[in-house]
Write a structure and sequence with these properties.
By secondary structure, this protein is of the alpha/beta class. The chain contains nine helices and nine strands. The strands form two sheets. A six-stranded parallel beta sheet has the order 1-4-3-2-5-6, sandwiched between helices.
Length: about 280
């Protein structure tokens, strides 16, 4: 198991890597969900695999958990080594935002003000701005993002298409613990009792998936203890208006204790199944 090369600047990337790069952008605190992204990225090509580790201050609003966000760089390096990452790109804030906050940012458009954007109005401006910067710094052929942050994935794809950035964006299925909870760096904030309560999110989504009916998810959440639901929203696969029938996406956000969690599932409306 070879340790990845750690670099902090575009100049170092250019001095050490050929073209055909594969990128998995992260904020660190890596877990098995990130490992699945790295494996999927490797399947997309033979070029060098780059994992970026950068806690992006632009996507945290005042009062959010920027300072509290877990930083586990040595453990992150070990996971990257295990998954065969060639380079860990770990820039400092000055490398990504030279001179301070950028004067030019990426407007996420109308979708950026909905769902997560309704609760966190500046969040996706910060996300898309840093993703655009990372794509410019690393210049990958393929970038991989997880479906757990489905709105983020949708907006990144739209940005890449609308701005003709020439990067192929791949989505990776959500990875879950055996009990169904979607893996997230924020799960470590949950107490044992809160973690048990948080299972209501995945149970609700699974009930909707099995029945093809959103009402099944609504009932699970209504009966859940300790779960303050922000939204349960049915949308089209591209997060446009919900279809009457056929493929759709059901998204949920809720607070359990002081921790805000999100999850989502693909649905086929009107096609309920009691299978696993």
């Amino acid at each position: 198991m070879t340790a990845p090369l750690v670099v902090g600047s575009r100049a170092e990337l250019d001095a050490t890597l050929p073209g055909g790069r594969l990128l998995v952008p992260t904020m660190g605190a890596l877990h098995e969900g990130h490992a699945s992204l790295l494996r999927l990225a490797r399947a997309h090509g033979d070029g060098p695999l780059v994992a970026s580790v950068f806690v992006n201050p632009m996507q945290f609003a005042p009062g959010e958990d920027l300072e509290r966000y877990p930083r586990t760089f040595e453990a992150d390096l070990a996971l990257c080594a295990r998954e065969g990452v060639d380079v860990v790109f770990a820039p400092d804030v000055e490398e990504v935002y030279p001179g301070g906050d950028p004067q030019v940012t990426v407007d996420p458009g109308p979708l950026g003000a909905e769902l997560e954007g309704a609760s966190r109005p500046t969040h996706f401006r910060g996300v898309l701005t840093v993703v655009a910067k990372l794509l410019g710094l690393v210049r990958p052929e393929v970038a991989v993002f997880g479906e757990k942050d489905y709105q983020q994935l949708t907006l990144v794809r739209r940005m890449v298409d609308d701005l003709c950035l020439g990067v192929r964006v791949a989505g990776a299925p959500t990875v879950r613990d055996p009990d169904g909870l979607a893996l997230s760096s924020r799960n470590r904030y949950l107490s044992p009792r809160e973690r048990e309560q948080a299972l209501a999110l995945s149970r609700a989504l699974d009930a909707a998936r099995r029945t093809g009916a959103v009402e099944a998810a609504e009932k699970v959440l209504a009966d859940a203890d300790g779960v303050a639901v922000d939204y349960l929203a049915l949308r089209g696969p591209d997060l446009g208006p919900a279809p009457v029938a056929g493929p759709a996406r059901l998204l949920v956000a809720a607070r359990v204790g002081t921790t805000r969690l999100i999850d989502n599932v693909a649905l086929d409306l009107g096609a309920g199944s009691e299978g696993p």
